[in-house]
Amino acid sequence: MKKMAMALAAGVAALSLGAGAAKAERGSDGNLNILYWQAVSILNPFLSGGIKDVEASSIVIEPLAKYDETGQMVPALVDEIPTLANGGISEDLKSITWKIKEGVVWSDGTPLTAHDVAFTAQYCMAPDGGCQQLAKFTDVEKVEAVDDQTVKVTFSVAKPFPYGPFVGKESPIIQKAQFENCVGPKAPECTAQNFGPIGTGPFRVVDFKANDVVTFEANPNYRDPAKPAFATVMIKGGGDPTSAARAVLETGEFDYAWNLQVEPEILAQMEAVGKGVIVTSFGTSVERIEVNLTDPSPDKGADRSTRAGGEHPFLKDPAVRKALSLAIDRELLVEAGYGAAGKPTCNILPAPENYASTGVDWCLKQDVEAANKLLDDAGWVPGADGIRAKDGVRLSVLYQTSTNSVRQATQALVKDMWAQIGVETELRNIDAAVFFGADPSSPDTLQKFYADLEMYTNNFPGTDPEGYMAGWLCSNIPNPDNNWLGTNQPRFCNEEYDALVHEMAKTADLAERGELAKKMNDILSNEGALIPLIHRGEVAAHSVTVEGMRMNSWDSQVWNIADWTRKK
Predict the structure, then answer these.
(1) DSSP labels for 502-538?
(2) 425-448, pLDDT tens digit by residue?
């Protein structure tokens, strides 16, 4: 175990994030305009799983270490990554000790200490706090400040890959002094803190208008006196991917646009104007349909879409779930909406290669005949209107997603495919800022899941999927008790799956970890808890005047915004 842990850690490099970056005077390049057309709802990634919220937060609050554009771990608030070789990881693999970089201060001028790091763990692990990133703290027994610069994480089991807590965009450090009265059930109530966190990053919050616009200014206490080059940043929300792409590539109104889920031929025409550049990279993003295994009927009241409300009337049938997947022509979905930025997949975990399964490739080829036979054999009989039914229950689904031209086109194609197997489909699209938002009072978030099926993309930072796969543990099901902030949207609960998650947590051998992850992947797909569709490349665009941007699918796309400069 120790030998493999050393091998895992050997790939971790203690590199400077600013290496090779051009030097510029802080604030000398004026304003940077960014479009996250899915508007930012909150600047606390512990209370939101929305990528747009997590990434906007990442320019203010930082983790101890990040992942660079190659997927390699690099220091952020430390000088080196702890490993077995340098003594940072204990011989029994049950603890990891981080040494905070000297001289780092918060944007308010107070020092960052190990007590802030320990508090961050306390904040996320607090009962009833609804921490969206709780999976990052799996098996954590305690986090303690050894001294002001040293923090020790102790695990309840040997942890061959101990880089879940405080690594990557989803696990940053928050200031104890600011959040200490916001622990547990009080967390969502701390609006001022959640909208304006004090951070150590290159920028600090000036003004926040939820679901609209966030303005930032250069952090005067940032640890590199020459950075950031931009004096201010504006992140604007609203619109759609097409208008966002146009604002960078055609009109030049904005400098950067995120998540351009736009038809490939349209992007190519826009780029030809010459004002911007399209950048793409593949990581772990998968467009998927998640299947609600609970009953979303409004008459369930407070138990709607919860396990307390009972199983789904017809999606509880595995034959129905498999038929829905078999009926989909994934090649056509890629051709119509993604082009070179998409690949058909049956895996929720498509990368890295060590973790990519071939065990569920049965879904890669559309087979309407097989899907119809499955439903026939299960007793679902077509009615006079062609819609199948059984015991008075009709196969009629509400299929929701965020508002986006590619997603609506995908919905329309899938609706036609499901009609071929006798399934009636009602389509619904929700404003992305709401769908991916964190408001526990909203009925329209992906976590509430007041529908039968929902479609979106998700991924994980870094290259190790342990924390990501833990997202489908029984304990991570969203419900009223955790403020609807769990990551297990299908409400999937499987003892075998949970056991594999816990086995991976104590497995050091890389090949064995790969096999465990593949088994988890195959359970999710074969059980039909979710229906993977497309391995998505991340697509963005930046102005030809912006330099230093390094497209990153393993962490935040704005992970190195401190190095961005304006071409002179």
Answers:
(1) HHHHT---HHHHHHHHHHHHHHHHHTTSEEEEEEEEE
(2) 999 999 988 999 878 899 999 999
Who's near 35: CB < 8 A, 6+ residues apart?
235, 236, 237, 239, 244, 247, 248, 254, 256, 257, 258
CB 177: neighbour CB atoms within 10 A? 14
- Report pLDDT digits (tens) over 481-493: 888 988 999 999 9
Comparing CA positions, the residue from 202, 138, 258, 243 lying closest to residue 553 is: 258
Determine the 3-state secondary structure of 55 from DSSP.
Answer: helix
| Residue 264, both tokens | 């490939």
CA-CA distance, 202 to 560, in Å (whole number)? 9
* Dihedrals phi, psi of 541, to nearest 5 degrees: -145, 145
Cα 516 to Cα 507: distance, rounded to the nearest angstrom: 9
Cβ(115)–Cβ(150) under 8 Å? no
Stated pTM of the model: 0.72
Report CA-CA distances (Å) from 278 to 147, 193, 234, 245, 451. Answer: 46, 35, 20, 9, 35
- Assess contact for 156 and 97: CB atoms under 8 A: no
DSSP state of 433: H
Separation between Cα atoms, residue 285 and residue 220, nearest integer Å:
35
Asked if 402 and 7 count as a contact pair (C-beta separation under 8 A), the reply is no
One-letter amino acid identity for 359?
G
**CA-to-CA dists, residue 484 to 131, 142, 304, 442, angstroms:** 10, 25, 12, 10
Contact present, 155 and 144 (Cβ < 8 Å): no
| Of 346, 349, 350, residue with least CA distance to 361 | 346
Helix (H, G, I), strand (E, B) or coil at 337: helix
Spatial distance between the Cα atoms of 110 and 106, rounded to a whole number of angstroms: 5
- Which residues does residue 281 pair with via DSSP β-bridges, in sequence order? 538
Q: Which of 513, 559, 508 is nearest to 3 (CA)?
A: 508
In this prediction, residue 3 has a pLDDT band, given cuts at 50, 70 and 90, of: very low
CA angle at 288 for the pair 409 and 339, rounded to the nearest 5°: 50
Burial class (CB in 10 A: 0-12, 13-18, 19+), 420: middle
Pairing state between β 276-291 and 65-67: unpaired
Burial zone of 190 (CB within 10 Å; 0-12 exposed, 13-18 middle, 19+ buried): middle
Domains and CATH numbers, the chain: 2-281+538-566 (3.40.190.10), 284-461+525-537 (3.10.105.10)
